[in-house]
Amino acid sequence: MKPLPTLRQLRYLVAVVDRCHFGQAAEACLVSQSTLSASIQELEELLGTPLLERTRRSVLPTPLGREIAERARLLLKGAEDLVDMARAAEDPMSGPLHLGVIPTIGPFMIPRVMPVLRETFPNLKLYLREDQTARLLARLETGELDAALLALPYPAGDVEMLDIAEDRFSVVCPAGHRLSSAPAAHPSDVAMEDLLLLEDGHCLRDHALAACALEDGRRNATFQGTSLHTLVQMVANGLGVTLLPQMALDSGILRGLDLVARPLDGHRPFRRIGLVWRRTSGRKEAFRRLAEALRGAMEEGATERGATERGASDKDGPAAAAQPAPATEAA
């Protein structure tokens, strides 16, 4: 039988290729530097070729070493998926689960759903990682994340996904602005305004433009926000208008500011919130249950919001219904 590398040897090689430093790689693998170095030397002897170029001051992978390390990542991830599959057969909703979430979802959705998840899945240890969509998908591909909460549509690659909710857009403008006098705003009206958007890299930027049917719409060229809270402050200072998703409005993001929100009309004035995971993952049942719980929590919030809006309409007339529903401040 042909001798084969061990998973431990491959893991050590990947760690060194990633860091180009034996000491840092050994620390990441929780072993001594001598143990790690000896293991890689055994791997090189097994394969009959050097995988690393060593000097007194540095270590670099050879071209073959880099290629083997990339293939090793896939083998290591496959082994992890086998373990996950076995554990999931016993209790899908137990143990650690590393979940990515984008910045335009995390601060507004997570405080609402975490109590539900803790109560529904008491044995699940949920670890959150907030980042932009492209970087979350990269971490998902390498196995650093198990799943991610994203805003769709987005070219996510070879993943499986389940929809959680539709998150409608509203136009936010100062009180007294021409858009504030109507019960809803049309995309053509928004196109005439200085539209404040998030900086490149945030998918909400593209979703907002798509909701207004704008490919290169008029926008404030002097400012690009890094967060929705910053955009709101810029609107309050009279620099333009912006589009916010409903979950941000429900969190009370406009509280204390002389701003109003008007629902956006149009063909698809919303973004989709979805849970995505690797197609090869062994925890698909866990993700389906997680998606179901998230969907239920979001639907319950929408029902409560609808009841609040109806109550305001009955009490104060149609004008009150056009205002964003009051919400509890996010934790």
Automatic annotation (TrEMBL):
UniProt entry tagged with the keyword Protein biosynthesis: no
- What ranges does the record list as Low complexity composition bias? 318-331
| SUPFAM superfamilies linked | Periplasmic binding protein-like II, Winged helix' DNA-binding domain
GO cellular component terms, semicolon-separated:
protein-DNA complex
Q: Which GO terms describe its molecular function?
A: DNA binding; DNA-binding transcription factor activity
- Would you say which domain of life the source belongs to? Bacteria
- One Pfam family this sequence matches: LysR_substrate
Domain HTH lysR-type: residue ranges? 5-62
Basic and acidic residues bias: start-end ranges: 302-317
Tell me which UniProt keywords the record has, alphabetically. DNA-binding, Plasmid, Transcription, Transcription regulation
Q: Where is this region: Disordered?
A: 297-331
Q: Which residues cross the membrane?
A: none
Recorded family membership: Belongs to the LysR transcriptional regulatory family.
| Name of the featured protein | LysR family transcriptional regulator
Q: Could you tell me which species this protein originates from?
A: Azospirillum thermophilum
